Amino acid sequence: MNRVEERAPAKINLHLDVIGRRSDGYHRLETIMQSISLYDRLLVAANKNRGDRIKLEVRGKELPADRDNLVWQAASLMMNKFAAVKPGLEIVLDKKIPVAAGLAGGSTDAAAVLRAVNRLFDLGLSRSGLEKLGAELGADVPFCISGGTALARGAGEKITPLSPLLNQPLVLVKPPFSVSTRQIFAEVSGRVDREGASASELVELIEEKVSISWQEGWHNALESFTCRLYPRVCEIKEKLESFDPLHVQMTGSGPTVMAFFDEKRRAEEVKKTWSEEDDEVYALEFVK
C-alpha cells in the first residue's frame, strides 16, 4: 500500500453539560456528539524525501502547514511511537470544514491521520488503541477516531459509543469570525446549572428510540457564555428560529449555530434563502 485516503467528518454537540472542574483546570463535561456530512479529505503516504520527515500541504483554507497544525502533530506522534513510520509522512489536507467553529475540524483531521497511518503501515492498532493516542492530541480526537453517535465524558476524551441515530437534516451557519474556546471556558467557573435533561437521561432515550425528540431538553451549557461575548451568535439563532425548525442550538463553544428540520428539502430551502453573504451556510445530515 503506497498511500491511504481518509475522509474526516465534522462533529456537532447535540447536548453539552458542564458538570464541574478538575484539579488540572480542565472542565468536566458530559456531551453527546454526532458526526455530520461535512468532510475534510486527507491523502497520506510514506515520505520519499527523507530530508523532510513530515511534508504537509493544505488546500482549501489558509492554515499553517507546520507543527502548529494538529495534522502535523498527529503525524509526529505516530513517527515517535512506531519505528515503522520513521521514514516520515507526506500528507495532503483538503480542508472544507470551517476553522475554529466548534466542529472539531482539527481534531477530526488528526484522527484521520492516526487511522491512515495505522492502515498504511499495517500497525494493527485497535479502535481503543487509536483513541488513547488521540487523547494525547486533544479531547475531541478520541471521538473522531470512529465518529457516529457517542457520549463523551471527562474533558471529552472518555467515549461511550451509542446506537446510531436516524438521519436528521440540519443547517449549519458559521459567522465570519471564530471564537476562543479558552476564552469561553474562562468565563465558566465551575458547574453550569442544567436547563433541561441530563446527558444520561438523553442517552437512555437514544438507546430506546434511536431517534431524537427535541422536546426532551437538549441544550448547550456554553451557549449563554458565548452569546454574551459574541452577540452575533444569538442573532443567528434568532434568525434560524424564524424558519420554524424542530430545534436550534449552538455547537461546541461556537460560533456555529445549527437548526434541525423534519425534511431535507426544508434545510436546503433555508440554505438557499439565507441572506447574510458573509456567513458560511451548509445543509447537511447525520452520518454513522
TrEMBL record:
Residues 69-148 form the GHMP kinase N-terminal domain. ATP binds at P98, V99, A100, A101, G102, L103, A104, G105, G106, S107, T108. HAMAP family: IspE. GO terms for molecular function: 4-(cytidine 5'-diphospho)-2-C-methyl-D-erythritol kinase activity; ATP binding. Belongs to the GHMP kinase family. IspE subfamily. This is 4-diphosphocytidyl-2-C-methyl-D-erythritol kinase. It holds the Pfam family GHMP_kinases_N. Keywords: ATP-binding, Isoprene biosynthesis, Kinase, Nucleotide-binding, Transferase. NCBIfam families: ispE (TIGR00154), PRK14608.1 (NF011202). GO terms for biological process: isopentenyl diphosphate biosynthetic process, methylerythritol 4-phosphate pathway; terpenoid biosynthetic process. It catalyses: 4-CDP-2-C-methyl-D-erythritol + ATP = 4-CDP-2-C-methyl-D-erythritol 2-phosphate + ADP + H(+). The keyword Nucleotide-binding applies. The active site is at K11, D140.
